[in-house]
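tool=predict chain=A
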Amino acid sequence: MDTRFSAAIHALILISASDCPMTSEQIAESVGTNASYIRKLTCLLKKGGVLYSRQGIGGFKLRIPPEELTLYEIYRAISEMDEVRMFDLHQNPNDRCVVGRHIRPALAEEFREIERQAERALKGKTLANCIEKLQAEIGRNGDLNRSMNGTE
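tool=predict ok
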């Protein structure tokens, strides 16, 4: 996975903290990317049931409250998979080599166990957990919602 996961979490925090629907241009400015990249991400998040938008009204809203939206659901939505797949095995090991002949079965179960552990960890964390950590990072003098909505 590339940086889509962190960009998606960044976008979802922005969307959840804003009083009005946020556009891809507004999100892109904060994420530090272009709006077309954000549109691709939000399309995956909409398809995955995480976001919704209304025809004729610009911007996105969360379909699931931050307290209920797990990082696993976000990961699945942007990776378009039914399960976590962090590792893949190279496709063409040389069967004439003893390592090449046995590497895929030797690593397959190891990788799958690591992925199961990651899946459990992602299911145990929510977008609200990320918001709380961000709020702590902002500090006691700042408030994410007030900052987002221009009241701070």
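The beta strands are 51-54, 57-62. The two ends are 36 Å apart (CA to CA).
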